[in-house]
Amino acid sequence: MKIEITNPEKIIYPKQKIKKIDVVKYYYEIADVMLPFVKNRLLAVIRCHGGIGDECFFKKHPTNDADVCQRFFDGDEEYFFVKTKQEILGQVQMGTLEFHTWASNVENLEKPNMMVFDLDPDEKLPLSKLRDAVLKLKSVLDDLSLQSFLKTSGGKGYHIVVPFKACGGWENFYGFSKQIALLAEGKWPNIFTTNIKKSARGGKIFLDYLRNNRGSTCVAPYSLRARDGGGISMPIAWQDLPRIKPNEITIKNYQKFQTNAWQDFFNIKQKIK
Ligand code: ATP
Ligand code: MN
Question: Per residue in 241-264, pLDDT tens?
């Protein structure tokens, strides 16, 4: 693989003195395990040309620059995606730090297959309560005989990801995720809220199922975050929930935390009944 990296010494994470070349090395090392989760999915990326201290932008459409990527039309809108490790690194060369994906693949755009529940805690909520809530939501999924997977967000919370067979349409998929969220909120109204308004959060966790909508995105497994600390949205094992904080795994320490906890992910063919 050959890819030219410009400005390798540019500082991307100022506090940790992490340079562009370090970001490239991270994605180079992780690309093989990351690729199955991002390839052939429409992307939105966060680019920070001058590092995270500078202006960053959320990008959903390709530009006519040197972008190495696959282009895709959805109606009048042009989107992009990657198919290879080289294209992941091409994104990184263009300043991409975060990779966000759709819940479906381009081969099957109308049949989503990756459901995400994002648990967003109120700022003052202790981590123990957040972890307890993660397990409560898992128990709802368990009761429905749905196998689910856990990742850190690399920021403030955790994400629970549920793989599905690409069989139903968006309406069913989104509707089902909403029913699950409402079920959890109904069971534990003092813990969860499905109301997006910050004012409704007071001491609760916003259970965000809205990312399961057509055109919405969620940060991909193994993506870096464009935030201080260089956190990673890292797949972890359920039994590690009590010992791994949402922003604990970073570009500096991720090697210690790599597990095979998600190895079954693509073997699971769950259906929405
Ligand atoms: P945390 O644990 O800190 O909440 P997170 O990944 O769950 O991390 P955000 O980064 O705030 O939370 O998630 C933003 C969500 O909104 C993602 O699903 C992302 O794909 C989507 N999104 C839509 N538009 C934007 C935008 N302009 N900038 C950033 N994210 C956007
Ligand atoms: Mn979140």
Answer: 999 999 999 999 999 999 999 999
Ligand 2 geometric centre to CA of 137 (Å)? 15
Residue 248 is predicted with a pLDDT of: 98
- List, as one string, the DSSP characters of 82-102: --SHHHHHHHHHTTEEEEEE-
Q: Please check the confidence at residue 145 and state whether its pLDDT lies above 80.
A: yes
265, 149 contact by CB (below 8 A):
yes
pLDDT per residue over 58-75, tens digit each? 999 998 766 778 999 999
**Ligand 1: distance of its center to the CA of 11 in Å?**
23
- Give the pLDDT confidence of 166-181 residue by residue, as tens digits: 999 999 999 999 999 9
Question: What CA–CA distance (Å, rounded) separates 186 from 174?
Answer: 18
Q: Which residues contact 156 (CB under 8 A, 6 or more apart)?
A: 120, 121, 246, 247
Per the confidence metrics, is the pTM higher than 0.85?
Answer: yes
Ligand showing the shortest atom-to-Cα distance for residue 247 = 1
DSSP 8-state class, residue 63: -
* Residue 212 parent element (H or E): none
**Mutation choice for ligand 1 from 100, 127, 158, 207, CB with most ligand atoms inside 8 A:** 100
In this structure, how many other beta carbons lie within 10 angstroms of the beta carbon of residue 149? Answer: 22
pLDDT, position 66: 66
**Residue 253: Cβ-neighbour burial (10 angstroms; 0-12, 13-18, 19+):** exposed
Q: Where are the beta strands (DSSP E) in 204-251?
A: 205-208, 218-219, 235-236
Mode of pairing for the β-strands spanning 205-208 and 192-193: parallel
